[in-house]
Amino acid sequence: MTVSVLAWSFLHSRVSQAHVFHITGTIPSSMPCLMLTEPLDSPAASNDDVSGRPRLPAADAPEASALIKDWIKWCRENHPDCRNLIDGSEAADHEEPLLPSRMLYLDGEVGAIRPRLVCTGRDLRGRYTALSHRWGDVQPLTTQTATIEERKAGIPWQLLPKTFQDAATATKSIGVDYLWIDSLCIVQDDHDD
Q: Of 71, 67, 50, 51, nearest to 59 (Cα)?
């Protein structure tokens, strides 16, 4: 099978180079990049909308969490910027970063996650993931001034869009309890937030 592979490298938190490769056969697992793949004849690849994505059965699949853990490990070992804290200092292996002022805490286990919004006070440390997504024409579930206390009490799983559910599931499957999603962690009707 021939696939298109988009690879990019970062310099000072900005994309410094992007390359598209066409590979026939097996993609080397040691290739130092986040690879998104799709057969060349797919609509996404032929339109250059996306080079593709690995085909995984589900967000909680062991293959998915293993792949994510491999990517994180590779980044920590090979990207100096991936070891830096926001202030530019290098994080020790045992040191966890300060969390943003609001996070989703993912209580429970995969299959029974109970997300709730927590205010960290900017003094709580931990590992977290962040979901970057396109809002599209339909506004996703959000936090508003009127709903912040409700979000702190807990967000029913069935109210979360599938993308948010998958992000929470993938986050828990790699052993991380915190997730940042802009629409839920930023109060959307507070322009100062």
A: 67
